[in-house]
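An instance as discussed:

___
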Amino acid sequence: MLRQFCSSLRLRLRCRAAVSGVVSRALCSNAAASAAKFVPNGTAANGTFVSSYNNLTDKKDIITYLQRHSLMSKPVNEHVVVQECPFCHATGGKIDNQWKLYILNRNGCFKCFRCSSQGSWFDFKNRIQGKNGKASISVAPLIPAPAAPAAPAATVLRASEVHAEHVKNRLGNEEAMHYLTQERGLSPITLEKYGVGLTRLSFGSGAEWCYTFPWFDEESKMIRYKARAIEAKQKQRLVPKGGGWSLFGMNTVGDADEVVLTEGEFDAMAVYEATGKPAISLPNGAGSLPPEILPMLERFSRIYLWMDHDTAGVEAVPKFVKKLGMARTFVVSGLAKDPETGKSTVHKDANDAMRAGADLKAMLSAAEPQPHGQILDFEALRD
């Protein structure tokens, strides 16, 4: 009896190992096939770009994500297996239709052995979020101009005309120029280089003057702009709604293979102003790093990530480092040492550091590949 039980147990273990091997080969084959389908511009054939620098190092990331979306899962060897594939038709509660979705721990590649859905970890998340690979970078040649009160109908201007009008507004507004040059410490040359403008937009409580930060495509044509109200900076808008994605300042970097990536537009301009190094900013601050902009960053061999020194910025660092690639991403801590006193001071962001007279070149030189203990812990941030 004991001999028969042991023989049966060994058989079950061999079968389980065999199944695991088949699943691993299928997922690895899928990953290789996805890599083979990449076209020269770095976009996958299915429309989702995954940076070659990307690192997915912990299956906890996968399990946590599945839990957030109420998908029951369990770890099995080198996979995470999901009970109900979100891409399958209804299982009817039948056990034979469940636990068919396998996700590889080391890179997030997935395959469902029921509905045959498969792809990268980014594909999985995009489908869960309802994007289904439809998001893409597009060039919008026309942008509606702000409606003039006396005009019978809104005039439609080309993007280049809209941008020129914004820059003209900024140059003609003494109060705005004083704020940008005296309070923010930015020279007219830097403002011109980055194309900062000024326009009036309605946020429901009436029209307000807003600074505009243009996004350009690879041909230096404006495809969209970000507007931020002068009086209430929390009032922000991307125009046109649903337009393409880019990065503020991307048109200024030339053929550089290193770049500074900041959380805000004023910070990117401050870095350039103080160091002369190419600097760009995230489209939505610490909130997100859209997959659509990853192809634009692929050409850089080194990225200096300079997030705000607050809770949101600190919490975003590990996520962004993982997306950008740990080997090429150097995190700027926000600490600056006074050369005379030797005392270290924490600055909230790059623009604050520049205005305080900190040595931004030294701060960049002190950047490290991994988030460092110099970054304030969350308890210190709350004080």
User: Anything to note?
Assistant: The chain has three domains: 17-128, 136-246, 254-383.
